[in-house]
Write a structure and sequence with these properties.
Length: 164
């Protein structure tokens, strides 16, 4: 299974000590160079920055078609370089899944007919696979510790889907 990730799922899972869920679910996760740079090339320590440099199952891969990345950046408002490269890398590799939380990026990925899930979808799958017992404590940690924003309606919907 080919899985490509944008920055947010990695940093948020790392912030609550649950990054290994990605390895358990997908075995290997690919990130484009821009995502790596968003995490490592900043002055302050970002959750997951050490892990993307050291964990063998998180693999950084460059996009081939940088012109397509530029086209996306020029034609789409509020799409950042990491999102654009994650979408292009997913297209180039015919990825089975793209992990992305930002709504605008997800909408654009859907236009390209990419299968996309976000952090909450990852957590729900981890619960269904028996890798976590309860989602509520993890959701609360994301909100409190990682400043993850989720509407009350979505919070309730995810917990209901998890049977909590």
């Amino acid at each position: 299974m080919i899985v490509v990730s944008d920055t947010s799922p990695i940093t948020n899972l790392a912030a609550i000590g649950q990054l290994e869920l990605l390895e358990k679910l997908y075995t290997r996760v690919l990130i484009p160079t821009a995502v790596y740079n968003e995490m490592v090339g900043v002055e302050s320590l970002v959750p997951g920055a050490v892990e993307v440099q050291t964990l063998p199952w998180i693999v950084t891969q460059s996009v081939i078609n940088s012109e397509r990345v530029t086209e996306i950046l020029e034609s789409q408002e509020n799409i950042d370089l990491g999102e654009a490269e994650a979408i292009v890398l997913s297209l180039e590799l015919s990825a089975d899944l793209l992990l992305m939380d930002e709504r605008r990026g997800r909408l654009l990925a859907a236009e390209y007919r990419l299968k996309v899930t976000g952090l909450l979808g990852v957590l729900l799958q981890a619960k269904r696979n028996g890798f976590v017992l309860n989602l509520k404590p993890l959701l609360d940690q994301l909100i409190d510790q990682a400043d993850f924003r989720v509407s009350h309606e979505l919070y309730t919907t995810i917990l209901q889907a998890a049977g909590e």
